[in-house]
């Protein structure tokens, strides 16, 4: 995807160049039409927004058939060869006398009309020159996809990846829970942990992975919508410029390139069939795939055929051409409106799916809402239980390790916030969907922050439970101390790491 976006400055420059090309070509065409009209003895110029400043008097009509300025307009019309007003002395060859000739003034007025049409077109197309900077939205998408890659690596699940750690900890409902530690730790505390916290680690990872992929696609959809509309604007102006002298019918070699449709973005995404399945179920294979951005198709310097008599042009009358151009501009807006509506639907769909998922499957089980006696205290002496403090410490270690990775993911998700100012539509003004996406990204950031905190809390509580078990059992105490000594010697284990895991989303997670 990198490199396919025009920067804001490149788009603005391209837009200005395209508009200037349109203006100069329109002036050339309009001057030619005005010359033909004057040569015919009238000042009723087709497409004129106001009456000509000089209405041809009867005695001047003969002169205009041989006027050198009119001849320039009909046969050339380029500014480089434009004659001065005094190039014509008003001599009428047919009448053999001097008459009034203000043709040069009429052609100057035509130039003003052409400039006014340029400005009308500039203000008529969607205002996307002031923003957004699409590379920033691309960076946000990449940051989110980076987080997704950490949560959902391809191939086998390595023990040291986040999915590998979660797989070791997770308690599932399908009966496939052959965890070695389950035999090494049973009883009230272990059961409470299994039924609460550890039953949520799997769903939380899965749902959060889906969320960051959908966020990435929302950013991509927003960028693609603007990118395609900018391309369409430039394509429209370039095509309109070529149509001013386009022959009818259009020769095959001159067939213009197809307009880049904004709503192709939503068709590629398939919102209706995939977003409803995104959370709480298996993620569709297409989720997380970056939208293919539409390439830049416009050549604003496309050559224009030499002027031909109006009878052979696609638009013999400029009034018809202007009506055609106005309709094309309105279509630009309707296409963008449709794309914006799809964008809004996508963001709303994700919001609704989040609203329908239990918070424990989005940010882990909340220890603060349960009694500490049910998860980290020693079971009663009369209870049946088995404890291996080394196993309990390993569970604690997995939680610390998961917290370490999550703190980095938190940073990746928070990095997307740097593009908040670029989530805008027309006139660099945020739409309702832009505002909602910013809030949605903030919600997801909160989920990751709480998940990091809760993994740390679980690690602390489970470690505390191991220490309590060891207090009344010399053998367990010895095994505890030996395990801690081994970890310290090999520089692994959670000791010293607790204070280095940063919950500030604007930092890079684990602080060395």
How far apart are the first and last residues' alpha carbons, in Å? Answer: 33 Å
The strand count comes to: 4
Rg value: 36 Å
Which quaternary structure do these chains form? single chain
* Shape by Cα distribution: rod-shaped
| Helix content percent band | 55-70%
Strand order of the largest sheet: 1-2
Number of separate helices: 16
User: What value does the average pLDDT take?
Assistant: 80
Helix-strand topology string: HHHEEHHHHEHHHHHHEHHH
Give me a quick take on this structure:
By secondary structure, this protein is mainly alpha-helical. The protein has helices at residues 8-39, 61-64, 68-75, 103-124, 134-151, 162-169, 180-184, 188-195, 201-243, 264-269, 271-274, 318-355, 360-363, 389-415, 432-471, 474-490, and strands spanning 91-92, 97-98, 185-186, 386-387.
How would you describe the overall organization of this protein?
With 512 residues, the chain is an all-alpha fold. 55% of the residues lie in helices and 2% in strands. It has helices spanning 8-39, 61-64, 68-75, 103-124, 134-151, 162-169, 180-184, 188-195, 201-243, 264-269, 271-274, 318-355, 360-363, 389-415, 432-471, 474-490; strands at 91-92, 97-98, 185-186, 386-387. A two-stranded antiparallel sheet has the order 1-2. Helix 1 (8-39) runs antiparallel to helix 4 and helix 15 (432-471) crosses helix 16. The longest helix has 43 residues, at 201-243. It is rod-shaped, with a radius of gyration of 36 Å. The two termini are 33 Å apart. The model is unreliable at 254-309 and 372-383 (pLDDT under 50).
């Amino acid at each position: 995807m990198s490199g396919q976006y025009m920067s804001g400055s490149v788009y603005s420059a391209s837009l200005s160049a395209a508009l200037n090309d349109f203006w100069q070509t329109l002036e050339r065409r309009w001057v030619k039409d005005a010359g033909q009209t004057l040569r015919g003895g009238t000042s009723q110029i087709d497409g004129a927004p106001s009456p000509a400043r000089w209405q041809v008097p009867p005695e001047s009509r003969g002169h205009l058939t041989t006027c050198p300025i009119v001849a320039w307009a009909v046969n050339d019309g380029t500014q480089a060869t434009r004659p001065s007003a005094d190039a014509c002395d008003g001599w009428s060859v047919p009448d053999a006398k001097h008459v009034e000739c203000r043709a040069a003034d009429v052609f100057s007025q035509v130039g003003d009309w052409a400039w006014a049409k340029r400005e009308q077109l500039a203000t008529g197309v969607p205002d996307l020159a002031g923003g957004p900077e699409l590379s920033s939205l691309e960076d946000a998408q990449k940051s989110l996809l980076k987080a997704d890659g950490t949560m959902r690596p391809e191939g086998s699940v390595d023990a040291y990846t986040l999915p590998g750690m979660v797989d070791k900890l997770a308690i599932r409902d399908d009966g496939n829970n052959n965890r070695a530690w389950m035999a090494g730790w049973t009883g009230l505390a272990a059961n409470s942990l299994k039924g609460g916290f550890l039953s949520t680690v799997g769903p939380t990872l899965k749902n959060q992975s889906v969320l960051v992929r959908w966020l990435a696609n929302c950013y991509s959809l927003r960028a693609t919508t603007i990118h395609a509309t900018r391309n369409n604007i430039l394509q429209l102006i370039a095509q309109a410029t070529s149509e001013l002298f386009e022959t009818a019918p259009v020769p095959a070699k001159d067939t213009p390139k197809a307009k880049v449709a904004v709503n192709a973005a939503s068709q590629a995404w398939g919102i209706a069939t995939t977003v409803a399945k995104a959370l709480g179920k298996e993620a569709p294979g297409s989720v997380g795939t970056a939208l293919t951005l539409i390439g830049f198709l416009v050549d604003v310097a496309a050559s224009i055929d030499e002027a031909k008599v109006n009878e052979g042009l696609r638009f013999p009358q400029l009034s018809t051409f202007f009506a055609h151009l106005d309709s094309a501009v309105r279509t630009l807006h309707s296409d963008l409106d449709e794309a914006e509506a799809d964008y809004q639907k996508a963001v709303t769909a994700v919001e609704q799916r989040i609203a329908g998922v239990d918070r424990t499957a989005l940010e882990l089980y909340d220890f603060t809402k349960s009694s500490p006696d049910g998860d980290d205290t020693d079971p009663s002496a009369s209870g049946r239980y088995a404890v291996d403090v080394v196993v309990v410490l390993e569970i604690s270690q997995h939680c610390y390790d998961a917290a370490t990775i999550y703190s980095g993911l938190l940073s990746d998700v928070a990095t997307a916030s740097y593009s908040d100012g670029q989530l805008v539509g027309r006139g660099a003004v945020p739409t309702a969907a832009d505002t909602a996406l910013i809030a949605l990204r903030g919600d997801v950031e909160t989920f990751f922050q709480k998940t990091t905190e809760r993994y740390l809390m679980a690690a602390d509580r489970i470690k505390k439970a191991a220490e309590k078990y060891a207090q009344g059992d010399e053998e367990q105490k010895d095994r505890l101390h030996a395990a801690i000594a081994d970890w310290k010697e090999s520089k692994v284990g959670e000791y010293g790491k607790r204070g280095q895991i940063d919950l500030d989303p604007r930092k890079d997670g684990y602080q060395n």
